[in-house]
Amino acid sequence: MDLKMFADSVRIFIKSGKGGDGHVSFRRELFVPDGGPDGGDGGRGGDVIFVVDKGLNTLGDFRHNKKYIAESGEEGGKRRCHGKDGEDLIIKVPEGTVIKDDATGKVITDMSGDNMREVVLRGGRGGKGNMNYATATMQAPKYAQPGQEAQEIWVRLELKVIADVGLVGFPNVGKSTFLSRVTNARPKIANYHFTTLSPNLGVVDLDGHGFVIADIPGLIEGASEGTGLGHEFLRHIERTKVLIHMVDAASTEGRDPIEDINTINAELEAYNPDLLKRPQVIAANKTDVIYSDDENPVDRLKAEFEPKGIKVFPISAVSGKGVKELLYAVRDMLDSIDEEPTVFAREFFTEDILDNPDEPFTISRGDDASFIIEGPRIDRMLGYTNLDSERGFNYFQKFMHENGIIEQLKNMGIKEGDTVKVGGYLEFDYYE
């Protein structure tokens, strides 16, 4: 059993492409002794783009390659030639991958739901060639703008399975047998702990109206503290809407099923208290091998948990007894939950990586009564922010508020409908 094969959390380094430098050159034509500047602009650096590949179901490929670097833009050339843009770097991940800043643990993006493609790092803007700097007083500028620096960051990729139902329980209670009976999944089944190293997904089809169920590998006490592979396994429960607790009602390994459920619930609560708010049912498995003449363990489970609103279903995963009743009850529970699938909200803006609070910017009034915001910090921010995207526009608004720009504009007497010009690249009318 190779534990290293289980890969649902990996740390990788990503870096966008640097912008190509602007070029300094002058026309050299016959009979034109003093040709003007003709240095071209540098090319833009490549972006780092994550894309969902529905054919992938593990992050195992990232165990072999830890560094991902997009192509840099080429330098501008003579005769106003624009440098070639760097190629974007496409990184394919399974659906359900959450990308986090490794240093802070904050979410950068969640590759699930409608989010099938995300530009995580933008390439640097190409520098302007000296052809852009000719003026009436300086007709032969020997200056060109350098390309903007690349962005780089260590990120952690975490795969959180997208399933409607999470199947939890101690090892060897019969979860794999149950899953293979009720779905199209064919998990490997063996009689030792942690035989299931990665979650098995299967589709339950009930009269054409089904749901996705995930067999979460066996949990043990201490899982929420990272014991064994606890964190890796608990991670997959976070998106599920309903939990099925499977217990060995016959206690074939000598454990008490009530204690098992309480232990697992304690681990769920320790990892994420919201998990206990999910609807739960109990699958009391192995009822076909209960031979005791004493109190029926299923009756004990019902007496303990049904007053708490957790229904108990006696089943046999081997013979199929009671399984259909359990599945229909779970489907009814899912039908009563109309919330959207869990998608983890953005907490970290990669644009902040290149932001330097020490760089200045100014706000002044133009001859046309507009408000002009300019300076190296503004140029830098606009260079790596795509204002055409919702994400980029949200970051732009955040930047304007957090840096006191909106407050400063108000102090200068801005009114609704006034024109604001930002960094020579953007112009808009102000409205609150």
How is this structure best described in words?
By secondary structure, the chain is α/β, with parallel strands linked by helices. It folds into three domains: 1-160 and 344-349, Spo0b-associated Gtp-binding Protein, Chain: A (Distorted Sandwich), CATH 2.70.210.12; 165-335, 3-Layer(aba) Sandwich (Rossmann fold), CATH 3.40.50; 355-429, GMP Synthetase, Chain A, domain 3 (2-Layer Sandwich), CATH 3.30.300. Helix content is 18%, strand content 21%. The protein has helices spanning 175-182, 230-234, 257-271, 297-305, 323-335, 376-383, 390-402, 405-411; strands at residues 9-15, 48-52, 67-69, 89-93, 97-101, 107-111, 117-121, 152-159, 165-168, 200-204, 211-215, 242-248, 280-285, 311-314, 362-365, 371-374, 419-422, 426-429. It is elongated. It starts with 8 loop residues before the first strand and ends with a strand.
Topology of this protein?
Elements: E1 9-15, E2 48-52, E3 67-69, E4 89-93, E5 97-101, E6 107-111, E7 117-121, E8 152-159, E9 165-168, H1 175-182, E10 200-204, E11 211-215, H2 230-234, E12 242-248, H3 257-271, E13 280-285, H4 297-305, E14 311-314, H5 323-335, E15 362-365, E16 371-374, H6 376-383, H7 390-402, H8 405-411, E17 419-422, E18 426-429
